[in-house]
Write a structure and sequence with these properties.
Distance between the termini: 26 Å
Bound molecules: adenosine-5'-triphosphate, magnesium ion
Structural class: alpha/beta
Radius of gyration: 17 Å
Number of strands: 12
Oligomer: single chain
Helix content: 25-40%
Order of helices and strands: EHHEHHEEEHEEEHEEHHEHE
Largest sheet: 8 strands, mixed
Shape: globular
């Protein structure tokens, strides 16, 4: 299937168990690689989150807040990045196993942030990879920051940047819930799925869904939605889908009707 660029995020909530440290969901990773392969989408950029690989370490060493001249933090940065690289290897291996030409592109090696926001992002390597038919695989990472020394760059910030920079047609975000709900569906049984949201409706929705507590150093669902606003403003459609349920991601990639949340400009 050849169309506009798709930027796909596989949430850390899907590919890892967030309850335990460094716990990948290997059967899920394998299944998702199969679904991506079967969907046969090109061009495609993949980004994955940190889940129980990135967040706990980043939190322990306060990586997001920046370098406080503590030697232990340097080791913490190295450990956080290394954990993400090892999770990334599981994803890339699974994709290659399904004959997808996936190439790991580590954000800390080429992206610089300034106070936590992407500042420089040389695009030549990715442009080349895409034009040759590779599937670049990026991830939320510990990166170097002009003001803070280092910080955490979330997969959610990355997807919007990539989608805008490479003029994507759409963003698909795989999470472990059915989509964006009126409140956290894991905490509240009354939570209702929002299937279609326009840019105009987003501020009200964002007010509704503010999350009190999260283990996610990059802010969980409210931050995810806030991060994708610039993409939606530029006409890029965003679809949140439950990638923990078999075939949902496949259908989303194929543009077949499937349960989830569409966020569109209007
Ligand atoms: N209003 C809401 N609607 C849907 N999910 C919500 C809402 N509020 C909170 N959540 C929670 O957000 C979680 C998904 O965000 P989270 O940041 O934990 O995962 P992720 O982004 O996939 O992981 P990572 O950041 O590691 O990539 C869901 O598991 C759900 O419990
Ligand atoms: Mg998250």
């Amino acid at each position: 299937m050849s169309a506009g660029l798709t930027v796909l995020k596989l949430g850390g909530s899907v590919i890892t168990t967030k309850e335990r440290a460094l716990a990948p969901r290997l059967p899920t990773i394998k299944r998702l690689a199969k679904e991506i392969s079967k969907a046969n989408i090109s061009p495609l950029i993949l980004v994955h989150g940190g889940g129980s690989f990135g967040h706990p370490l980043a939190k322990r060493y306060k990586i997001k807040e920046g370098y406080r001249c503590k030697a232990s933090q340097l080791l913490g940065f190295a450990e956080t990045h290394e954990a993400m690289v090892s999770l990334d290897k599981l994803i890339v291996d699974a994709l290659i196993n399904e004959k997808i030409p996936a190439v790991a592109v580590s954000p800390s090696s080429f992206v610089m942030t300034k106070s936590g926001r992407i500042h420089s992002f040389p695009e030549e390597p990715l442009t080349k990879l895409l034009s040759m038919g590779f599937v670049p695989v990026l991830f939320g990472d510990a990166v170097f920051d002009l003001d803070r020394g280092f910080t955490i760059l979330s997969g959610d910030q990355l997807i919007t940047h990539l989608a805008l920079r490479f003029k994507a047609e759409r963003i698909i975000v795989g999470v472990d819930v059915d989509g964006l709900c009126t409140s956290n569906p894991k905490m509240n049984k009354e939570a209702k799925l929002l299937t279609h949201i326009t840019l105009k409706e987003l501020p009200t929705v964002l007010q509704q869904i503010s999350e009190a507590k999260t283990t996610d150093v990059t802010g969980g669902m409210p931050s995810k939605v806030r991060e994708i606003v610039p993409a939606v403003e530029n006409g890029i459609s965003v679809f949140l889908v439950n990638a923990a349920k078999p075939n949902r991601l496949y259908k989303a990639l194929r543009k077949e009707p499937v349960k989830g949340t569409y966020i569109v400009k209007g």
